User: Fold this.
Amino acid sequence: MLQRTMATEAARINQATKPISPRRLARTNPLRQTLIGYAHSAGIESPYTFFAPNVPESLKVMFEIQFPDKRVSYELPRVRSATEGLRLSALIDQAAAKPGLWRELVLQMLAAGTADDNPNAIQVRVIVAALRFPRPSDYVKGAEPSYQFVCSYDFVPADARARDEAE
Assistant:
């Protein structure tokens, strides 16, 4: 009931303000240019993503590194700056969005970089998981956010393949 009232009121306000919109003025009108210029510079005309291109860092990437002596270690991607972290996050978000060659190439590149940092590794598994928040009623009861598996990619470094073939 309240939602219908709010929608009706919003529609009424929208209709009432249409005649005074600066867009109804001539393009050469200084008032129109000033108001629209202000709206654009303030971000009023821009979608939210202009200011926060990647707000929810909801995907997490982890590397599972396997060694010849059966040891397994886990690492997170390392970045040198917040900007690099934002770029990596955006790349992972884009690549993990849907299965296919792009996802495989991005995960392979990430795995190859980790393999380079761990020259004795025989396999690097890239695991991507999505952060899932509990429902508000469960959160009140103490539930914590959890991760849901999205995808993984197994990468065998060229050095490890060469060692296997030599044996």
